[in-house]
Specification:
The chain has 144 residues and is an alpha/beta fold. It contains three helices and six strands, in the order αβββαββαβ.
Length: 144
């Protein structure tokens, strides 16, 4: 197997080796890796929700911003509705925070399943419902 930059071993399932054009933007010069994000989100009742985390990949696509989180499930779910709740909560938190930081952009979210690799965009309606659960969460902070 070939060695990538930094001496890391490239494997057949490495995202950088994929021929999937949907993955190309994730590794373009415009993409950012390991982007720290923090925000304080107002809630209808109770204290604001403080969110902090590190987004695996952040890509500006015209008037949209794509948040991508890497996951290693083997095998990964085929349908967004089967994605574990913890992953949906994490993406919903990132999307809430990104809306504050990147006001005016349409915020999308996806998971890059490293087994394949395969990109799965999470529908906005699924994230909207997850955000409601997140905002109802009783805690005051969330490290995503």
């Amino acid at each position: 197997m070939a060695r990538g930059s930094g001496g890391a071993r490239a494997t057949p399932s490495s995202p950088k080796r994929s021929r999937d054009p949907a993955l190309g933007a994730l590794f373009s010069a415009e993409a950012r890796a390991e982007v720290g994000i923090a925000a304080e989100i107002a809630r209808p009742a109770g204290p604001p929700l403080r969110i902090s985390g590190k987004i695996d990949r952040l890509v500006r696509c015209g008037d949209a911003l794509l948040i991508v989180d890497y996951k290693t499930n083997r095998p990964p779910p085929r349908d967004p509705a089967a994605v574990p709740e913890a992953y949906l909560l994490q993406l919903a938190a990132y999307r809430l925070a990104a809306r504050q930081v990147f006001a005016g952009l349409h915020i999308r979210a996806a998971i890059l399943w490293t087994d394949g690799p395969r990109i799965m965009e999470i529908p906005g309606s699924l994230l909207d419902a997850t955000e409601l659960r997140l905002l109802a969460y009783g805690g005051a902070s969330l490290d995503a």
